[in-house]
Specification:
four-stranded parallel beta sheet; six-stranded mixed beta sheet; alpha/beta; 15% strand; single chain
Length: 373
């Protein structure tokens, strides 16, 4: 029987990605985080490969035999693209695409695409577009099939003309300059708003943590606001500040963009003004997803980013969030081990659940006490 072509099903079909991960010794979490990023982007995982070792190879970053094996596995899995869990330099990216005959990109590009899909305010849109263009500039050659052809300049004319690729590079550099100028104006407005807030002598606390740790849920639980909450990575891109009354005094609580390991440096640079909210606050409320097996590694990433933006020495309160999810673990021994290791790492951490309200009273007392200090 002849199969009827279903246009609607074809349009709704998700992009299938084949994932390639680093050896477990280099990345104990495996491909769990990359899978989460891919899912957040609206793709589905067609298959995956965890490498046993990484070879220093100029063409692919690994032996050509292994590279061919991965391309064949992706083809068998009917994947539309291959995604690497490490940064691919432009030359290796072009080599991979020639070999695989399908798009090949890295974790950094996935994160930038997620940010692009989630940016809503003018500042976030400008920041993400700037990061995307700075990332893509050295990679323009892999984005077009035959743009190295000469344009114009017939025989006997003044010259051979410019390569299309060079024209695109020039336009991209010009666009980057324009975006930087526009972003400077928006940041000036943010600085003005910040000065206006600072004239009101209210202490400020910044909510910081790994992406999807539950910062926005906690913000809603503490302030009664209706910040967007989604079980997806990078649900919040713009800082949101709300007032909260504690022990008769008011404080300003700011929700910030979530951190992630190996965040593309273009995004760190682009979102510096957003991250400054943490750097200029009086205290930090670090939110950790206690139910995530990689929570210790995630907490280290948060600490590293805070050090990078100059907020590493601020007064901190650590909240172990999602205790309800941790208590729901079938493996009680694993849950107990995870909780004890977090408590050993973060002395005085408060166990909370933004969802059920567990420990929020104690958390408010701790915030009030640290502000009074």
């Amino acid at each position: 029987m002849k199969k009827i072509y279903d246009l609607e099903a074809e349009q709704n079909k998700k992009t299938r990605a084949y994932l390639v991960g680093l050896p477990l010794l280099q990345n104990p979490g495996g491909l769990a985080e990359l899978s989460g990023l891919v899912w957040t982007l609206g793709m589905e995982v067609a298959g995956q490969t965890l490498l046993q070792r990484m070879d220093v190879h100029p063409a692919y970053g690994m032996g050509s035999g292994k590279a061919k094996e991965i391309c064949e596995a992706a083809q068998m899995a009917e994947a539309d693209c291959i995604i690497m869990d490490w940064e691919l330099d432009p030359t290796k990216q072009r080599n991979w695409e020639k070999l695989a005959k399908i798009p090949v990109f890295d974790r950094q590009e996935v994160i930038i695409r997620i940010f692009a899909s989630r940016a809503s305010t003018k500042e976030a849109v400008l920041q993400v577009e700037l990061a995307r263009l700075e990332y893509s500039l050295p990679r323009l050659a892999h984005m077009y099939g035959d743009l190295a052809r000469q344009r114009g300049g017939n025989y006997g004319s003044k010259g051979a003309g410019e390569k299309q690729l060079e024209l695109d590079r020039r336009q991209t550099r010009l666009k980057i300059q324009q975006l930087k100028a526009e972003l400077a104006k928006v940041r000036q407005n943010r600085a003005t708003q910040r000065k206006r807030r600072q004239k009101i002598p209210l202490p400020t606390v910044a909510l910081c943590g790994y992406t999807n740790a539950g910062k926005s849920s906690l913000m809603n639980a503490l302030t009664g606001s209706d910040t967007l909450v989604e079980n997806k990575l990078f649900a919040t891109l713009d800082p949101l500040t709300r007032r909260i009354k504690l022990a008769g005094s008011e404080i300003l609580l700011t929700d910030t963009v979530g951190f992630i390991s190996n965040l593309p440096h273009q995004l760190i640079d682009a979102f510096k003004s957003t991250l400054e909210e943490a750097a200029i606050s009086d205290a930090l409320l670090i939110v950790i997803d206690a139910s995530d097996p990689d929570s210790l590694k995630q907490a280290k990433t948060v600490k590293d980013v805070l050090e990078e933006i100059g907020a590493g020495k601020k007064k901190m309160i650590v909240a172990l969030n999602k205790m309800d999810a941790l208590e729901a673990f079938e493996d009680k021994a694993q849950a107990a081990l995870l909780l004890s290791s977090l408590k050993a790492e973060f002395d005085g951490a408060i166990e909370i659940s933004a969802k059920s309200g567990l420990g929020l009273g104690l958390l408010k007392e701790r915030i009030s006490a640290i502000i009074k200090e």
